[in-house]
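1st attempt posting a full record on here, be nice pls
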Amino acid sequence: MRLFRPGLLILFAAVLTTAACGRGGSERAPEAGDRAVAEVQGKTIWASDVKREAVAQGLVGEGEPLDVSSDLFRRVLDEVIDQKLLAREAERRGLDNSPLAQRRLEATQERILGDMLVETQVNKTINDRAVEAIYREQLQLAETTEEIRTRLILSRTRPEAEAVLGVLAQGAAFEAVAAQSSIDDATKFSGGDLGYRTLDVLPQTYADAIRDQPAGSTVGPFQTEGGWAVLRIEDRRKEAPPTLDQARPQIVRYLTYEGVRQLLTELRGRAKVEVHLPEAAPVAAPAPVAKAPAKAQ
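the predicted structure (as tokens):
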């Protein structure tokens, strides 16, 4: 298991503010440090309601602050007020009593309860000690990768490339020769600088030419798709692993994913679940590629 790479997926439903527009009932108590920011027909809207809606829309992250004096807060507050007004009018018309509304309200309630369970489970399992343990484990598994900084002079022909080598042998600066002679417009004006790259992202001909060469050496000329190349190896360094702070978000996503996966595995293991659908048809194997008939001898 290696985490120092992209691809870990974790997506869970956000808590819907519309569910707070319930069918009457007692006003809920504000959260610790919460404050009332509006009132709609006797129903209070709290700052946490607005923050929750902003998170649900992906406008802010779960742990990010949202200043009540910001334009974003005011915009989301207006949306929450509009939603409250729509919900009150729907109740006045009796739409909340329809079977369709009841099913939707039940589904929304289930999503919210599920989110609360996930949050509770995650808060129990994710802490600094767990994050640091995963980080130490990943440091032991991580492979140290070498990065190589190179410069390039690209010529149209081999004789031109050999002439470049002659000029360099006389003491000319590689950067100056690249700016004057290289036909690679992408790098010539930066002295041929290709930056730090690992061998696996360089063109294969470049990687083969510099693989075992020390820093300070000049290699070439050798032929490439674009012309004849001369490379100078400026530096070789080991790629540093991410720091704990850099790796923390990815580790937290992984621990969240694992915590929810284990919880769902446990719940499915002790619950009776029946799916009333036909079994999925097996995926058909791809048809074999037809071979050309053999020629008559």
